[in-house]
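From the pipeline queue, job 12 of 40. The input is one protein chain; the requested action is below.

Action: predict structure.
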Amino acid sequence: MTKIPPAAPDAPPPPAPTEPQALRRRFFEQIAILFGREPTRPQEAQIAPAAQKIHVYKQGNRDFIAEKKHARAHAVTTHRWRNRRWVTLILANLLFVLSWTLDVQLLEGSLSASRFVGFHLIDLNSALQVMLAHKHIIVNLLIGTGTVLLGWALLGGRSFCAWVCPYHLLAEWAEKIHLKLVEKKLVADVPIDRRLRSVFWLVFALLALLTGYTVYEAISPTGILSRALIYGPGLALLWVAALLVFEIFFSRRAWCRYACPIGLTYGVVGIVSPLRVKYTLEGCFHEGDCRKVCLVPHVLDTVIKGRAVATEVPIGPDCTRCGLCVDACPSGSLKFEVKGLSKLL
């Protein structure tokens, strides 16, 4: 009679990652999300032990549920960061208008290319488009982009979009109208594949390279609005109005989320920024208020119950640093932080 060999023992499960290892993996995942990949739920083996303990504690724990109800009852929503951002955005664009109107030569030009008290400032995406159209590196453009590159690399994410871009502000107000219409079931929000933004970035880059013209600059709502504010309105504003109508009645914030190459460019520049929004798992009650107000809610997938891979997780580079989630969080689990400094903003 043939003997059946004993079954081989099951291989031991891989060791859980340390927090630095889990965050390193998360960092690369967030870069993929910036380019359009949808966030996924991490496997248990990808979550650091300290975070796993907190997740287990929150599963059906009566004390945690009581704390959650208490936080909800005493939640106070502020608009501190939203108000700061709106004031900053309006003043930045108003400075262009006043400099042109009063001829004080303080901030000349527009958001595409300008000069601030003699220092040249050039939008990174515009500079790239020009160099592709001319098919060579233009030294003067590199000098003009240096200060801009450093500034937005320090501020990080898509902070240019939320804190400077005039179209972003209009789209934010249009989104409020859209949500009211959705609530009344007059329209439906139609999501679009976010990978389309990366496709558009490549398309506009190829158009500049092949045609010798900065095609994107002709249709950029950021540039159109900036020039209209400074030099007066033109027919190009009809294109901006059409985009806003599309976002109100069809797909919320469609241009910023699915098409604009400027946001992708600045997102890449701000990947390793020291300034970020940081999420703390332990104090979070997973209310979901932050994701409801977020302009790009996919960046907050880590706040969904069971998804945080570490006890503290920085929000990724597709974040606009708008601060709406910080204002909305009832437990203070989302805060601005400068990496390496313990003091929170």
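Job complete. The radius of gyration is 23 Å.
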